[in-house]
Design goal:
Layout: E1 3-5, H1 6-11, H2 13-22, E2 27-31, E3 34-39, H3 42-49, H4 56-66, H5 68-71
Parallel strand pairs: 1-2
Antiparallel strand pairs: 2-3
Amino acid sequence: MDSIPYSEVRAHLAETLKKLEVREEPIFISRRGEPAGVLMSVAQYQRLAGPVAKDFWSAVCAWRAENADYLATPEAPEDPFADLRDPTTTGGRSPVDFGAADVDGGGHPLAR
């Protein structure tokens, strides 16, 4: 991997970005001779970061799926997301306390 000084990156940013697009390797940026950062193409970053969830709930579901085997073992800690609700199940309304008795007088806590 190349290492170039910060001042050179700043002075020649367009050329440095073009270099990143052509090669498959990030560039180290140094400041006063010490590594200070890494510059990489978007394609390199996406390969490194992996797929990104579209929202928090999708990330929670993906985490649960990836860790399902471990979460099923007795030594696993409690699911830190156990109290979260799927935001699509309330239809945009506030969550309902299903432990409450006959909330609306109609026999069902979601009835309106």
